[in-house]
Amino acid sequence: MKKNQPSGKRHTRRGGFDRLLEIMAQLRSPQGGCPWDLLQKERDIGKYLLEEAYEVLDAIESGSPDALREELGDLLFQIVFLARLSQEKGHFDMNGVMEDIARKMIRRHPHVFGDAKVKDAQDVKDRWDEIKKNVEKKEKTDLFIGTRIPRALPALARVQRITAEASRAGFDRAEKKTLLKKVDDDLEAFKKTLGAGNHEKMSERLGGLLFSMAKLGSLARVDAEEALRSATGEFTDRLTGIDKKLRARGKTLSEISSAEMDVLWKASKKSTKGPGKR
Fold this sequence. Notes:
The chain has 278 residues and is mainly α. The relative contact order is 0.06. It has twelve helices and no strands. It has three domains: 16-107, MazG-like (Helix Hairpins); 155-222; 225-271. The two termini are 47 Å apart. The radius of gyration is 25 Å and the shape is extended.
């Protein structure tokens, strides 16, 4: 047997996971099941799956193991739910899902479960893509459609994935200086639409500006989605802190002047700096 190669025996699922599958079966049972769960379709669960994935990201950023444990459970439940719906249609069950991913991971890690050698993490990624193409025959028939760039990705993340793919295909070879000029031009174009009252044109110009900014971030190797999430986190932390201080004084945000708000906002920036702050 090759190094680290798992045995061919199927491992029996025990404990909590089996219990979760039993609970899922009962919830979907026509006899004594849950009326709400019985109405759910794959598209319904797909929406909840996306929401729970974001809850997991929030838990990771919070640094709370308890929160992460809870949110991972919620996410897992949506996966089990989708597998149950497919099982009821006679397509596949949760065991099939786990068997498939186990085989895929072994196949795509020949340097762990076989005799292949790799130099570094980039070499692993290159071999991963090579195995997808040459072993699994997963060649794309369209530049942007497929598992590489899901349509449900958040807009900023999708922009960066698409522009990176375009660059790999040889379409775009923009430099930072050129992109900075494009950002400036898009910002000026957006400014001109602000006073015109044309909502459609403003939306178009803002879309162009955001696209250029995300593209610039990609060229600078900055994750635009993570950068915006971090900035949003800092904003909410600062505003929440200000709100708490005002409430302690018997005031609300709407009751203070712009000048007082500016002072509080500048002071809040100092208090949000430090370890553990987003």
